[in-house]
Design a protein that fits this description.
The protein has helices spanning about 10-25, 35-45, 60-70, 85-95, 105-120, 155-165, 175-180, 190-205, and strands at about 5-10, 25-30, 50-55, 75-80, 100, 125, 130, 135-140, 145, 150, 170-175, 210, 215-220. It is elongated. It is α/β, with parallel strands linked by helices. The strands form 3 sheets. A 5-stranded parallel β-sheet has the order 2-1-3-4-5, with helices on both faces. Strands 6-7-8-9-10 form a 5-stranded antiparallel β-sheet. It has 2 domains: about 5-120, 3-Layer(aba) Sandwich (Rossmann fold); about 130-220, Winged helix-like DNA-binding domain superfamily/Winged helix DNA-binding domain (Arc Repressor Mutant, subunit A). Helix 2 (about 35-45) packs parallel to helix 3 (about 60-70) and helix 6 crosses helix 8 (about 190-205). Keywords: DNA-binding, Phosphoprotein, Transcription, Transcription regulation, Two-component regulatory system. GO terms for molecular function: phosphorelay response regulator activity; transcription cis-regulatory region binding. One of its GO terms (cellular component) is protein-DNA complex.
């Protein structure tokens, strides 16, 4: 599974190094060099995690994250900065940061921190995405389990369920579903989405997936 990261960093070499390294571990990276670019990217897309430098053009990384938090965005964020005094560390956490790593840093340490935050915020443990006490997704095998029993679920059902659970409590738009379930060369069938949704409702109950008319769906289990 590919998780989407926004990386705000004005050092071109470090930005490219982070993308090259993280892409090897299947993270899809969006790269921006200023606070304004970062805000625009966040308003146009959804991300699983933010990597934020503090000293960037337009606004500081602290101000960028505060703006998102004030708008209701709770996407986890890691500050990456050369500021290493206790006041700056405290400011980072008060701005809404989930972690703080000081430059220079080891790339593998950063990877461990990313995995730890995703495990905590999204229920991802190794290759598992925990849905609740009964259900979990095996991300490597693309299978749904109830306890230790594997349930019958086709690939499109799985991909849609993963998308809904990953953004649990938020509306997953039809456009997001189209992008996630179909390649650019495949024909999109609106009726198929309704079939997949109904397949999931048979497992989790009708109340688990809310239809936001004309916009998309929200998973509430």
């Amino acid at each position: 599974m590919s998780y989407k990261l926004l990386i705000l960093e004005d050092n071109t070499l470090l930005l490219q190094t982070l993308e090259d390294f993280l892409s090897e571990y299947a993270y899809a990276c969006t790269l921006v060099k200023s606070g304004k670019e970062a805000l625009e990217a966040c308003f146009q897309n959804t991300f699983d995690l933010y990597l934020v430098d503090v000293k960037v053009p337009d606004m500081s990384g602290f101000e960028f994250l505060q703006a998102l938090r004030h708008s209701g965005d709770r996407t986890p964020a890691i500050f990456i900065t050369s500021l290493n005094d206790q006041e700056s560390v405290a400011k980072g956490f008060l701005a809404g940061g989930d972690d703080y790593i000081k430059k220079p840093f080891d790339l593998h340490e950063l990877l461990l921190r990313i995995k730890a935050i995703l495990a905590r915020t999204k229920g991802i443990v190794d290759d598992w995405l925990i849905i609740d006490n009964d259900y979990k997704l095996n991300l490597a095998r693309k299978r749904l389990f109830k306890g230790t029993t594997e349930l019958d679920l086709n690939l499109k059902d799985f991909e849609l369920l993963y998308l809904l659970v990953k953004d649990r409590g938020h509306v997953v738009t039809k456009e997001m579903i189209h992008q996630h379930l179909w390649s650019s060369s495949e024909e999109i069938n609106e009726g198929s989405i309704r079939v997949y949704i109904n397949n999931l409702k048979k497992i989790f109950g009708k109340e688990a997936i809310v239809n936001i008319r004309g916009i998309g769906y929200r998973f509430e289990k």
